[in-house]
Amino acid sequence: QVQLVESGGGLVQAGGSLRLSCAPSGLTFTIYTMGWFRQAPGKEPEFVAGIKWSGATPFYTQSVKGRFTISSANAKKTMYLQMNRLKPEDTAVYYCNRPNSLLPWGTGALVTVSS
Questions:
Q1: Contact 36, 49 (CB under 8 A)
Q2: What does the pLDDT look like over 56-86, one tens digit per residue?
Q3: Do residues 80 and 71 make contact, with C-beta atoms less than 8 angstroms apart?
Q4: Long-range contacts of 73-76 (CB under 8 A, 24+ apart)
């Protein structure tokens, strides 16, 4: 059974940084594209960034380009989202998942950016 576990959220001031981690279990991760999504209060879930575990060129939604970096550490079976220059509008629960064929959602990591 696939389980997605996100960690690393927290409270940070605008302009600060956080790094999220995702450790999928029960998944042959190396053959998939994986990504990060977020859901702000009262809004629909939004795709944020994606990457193939092979390390191919990552892709981002426009609002985070130049500020967020997605990466993977295959040996650790872990995916990361480095978030820099955070803005209050980045406040959301962040989830990792497989964009092309969604898996059961994890509990997410809450990121709160204060102004």
A1: yes
A2: 789 999 999 999 999 887 777 888 999 999 9
A3: yes
A4: 74/29, 74/30, 76/23
